[in-house]
Each structure stands twice: as C-alpha cells, then as structure tokens.
Amino acid sequence: MASCDEAQKSLQEVPILAVQCGGAIDKDYPSTLHGYNFEVTSPAFSRVVALAMGSEPGHSTSSADTNESYPIRCVSIYDTKAEHGYDPAALTKLCADSEGRRVLVTHDLVTLSLGACRLVEALQSRGVSDVVVVFTGARVPERFRSSDAAVNIGVAIGALRSLTQPGVYIAIDCRVLPVDRALQRRSDKSP
C-alpha cells in the first residue's frame, strides 16, 4: 500500500491539460483600431502559470516551460455575446482522451454550470469515470489588475493536484465543489 507521501508525489507528477473554452477570463482589449468591445484572445491560463513559475509572460523560455508542464488546447474562443457556443463534443473528447486524466477548463461564468453539467452527462454516456475535471473562470478579464483569474486558476490547479475522487468540479472564489453540490448551493440561494 502506498504511503500518503507517495500518493501525493504521484499526484504532483500527473500532467494537467488546460482547455480554453472562452469567456471573460480570456478577454483582452480589441486588436482593431477604435474597438469598443473586448474580444476573447490567447489563454489567460498560460500567462497566469508563467507568472506563478517566476517568469515574465511572453518570453520564449516561460512559454516553453508552461507548454511542457501544462499543455493547452483551445476548444473555442466563445463569448456569451456571440451567437454560437463551443462544441461540447470536442471538450468531451479532450477530457476522455487526456493522458493524465486531469483537466482544467477555463470557461465563461454565465454558462459554466451548464457546460460542466453537459460534460458530466457526456462523460457518463461514454463510460468515462476516471477523469478529474475542474472548471473555472473569472468575472473580470485576466488582463485587468483587479481580476479574480489568477486566484481561480491557482485554486483549480491545487484541486487537480490534490483531488483523489474522479468527477467534474467547479473552482470559483476559493471554493472547489463537485458540480452537483455547486448547483445545489446555487439553487439554495435563489429566491
């Protein structure tokens, strides 16, 4: 039987796949001249991890280190203001096929609960029961100083490094809850 230290060490070595599904967390100033709306751009995840690793975002060494430690896939640059969403089948496939079975999904907060519920159903229908997925997002784009993105991504990474029960979780506001409990808490608070 493995000791607690051995189990924790093995969790630290499991790769985490980061999946971008869009939302406020990835928004940036528009690239068009005189643009008024923000647009979803490159993954905030890579900038947050680069800073956490003690590197400046944008330097070639930090992005290489980030990509090796945390591969990033983009499912969509979805924005709730857009007419189309992302393809849930693409997210399901990435989660089901991920090597380490540990996946962090950055998602729009408005539809995060719905996206997480759909993923639970899709994984169950495919018979996938050994994956740990943590959804997170931000109320304010990561590019802003007052953003909650770094905290939410940090909590999500910590959860992925310590959770031992497979499932789909939501990490927001320094809390990590299984999807069903997060939805229950949300419904308990509604009028």
Question: Can you describe what's shown?
Answer:
With 191 residues, the chain is of the alpha/beta class. Helices cover 41% and strands 16% of the residues. Strands 4-1-5-6-7-8 form a six-stranded mixed β-sheet, sandwiched between helices. The longest helix has 14 residues, at 112-125. 34% of the residues are buried. Mean pLDDT is 77; it is low at 58-66.
Write the layout of secondary structure elements.
Layout: H1 4-13, E1 17-20, E2 27-28, E3 39-40, H2 44-52, H3 60-69, E4 72-74, H4 88-97, E5 102-106, H5 112-125, E6 132-136, H6 149-162, E7 167-172, E8 175-178, H7 179-189
Parallel strand pairs: 1-4, 1-5, 5-6, 6-7
Antiparallel strand pairs: 2-3, 7-8
Q: Keywords for this structure?
A:
41% helix, alpha/beta, six-stranded mixed sheet, 191 residues, 8 strands, 7 helices
Unreliable stretches (pLDDT < 50, length at least 5) are: 58-66
In terms of DSSP E residues, the strand content is 15-25%
Q: Quick one: overall form?
A: globular
Helical/strand content category? alpha/beta
Main β-sheet description: 6 strands, mixed
Radius of gyration: 17 Å
The number of strands is 8
Q: How helical, in percent, are the residues?
A: 40-55%
- Order of SSEs, N→C? HEEEHHEHEHEHEEH
Determine the number of helices (DSSP H or I, runs of at least 4 residues): 7
Distance between the termini: 49 Å
Strand adjacency order, main sheet: 4-1-5-6-7-8
How confident is the prediction overall: mean pLDDT?
Answer: 77
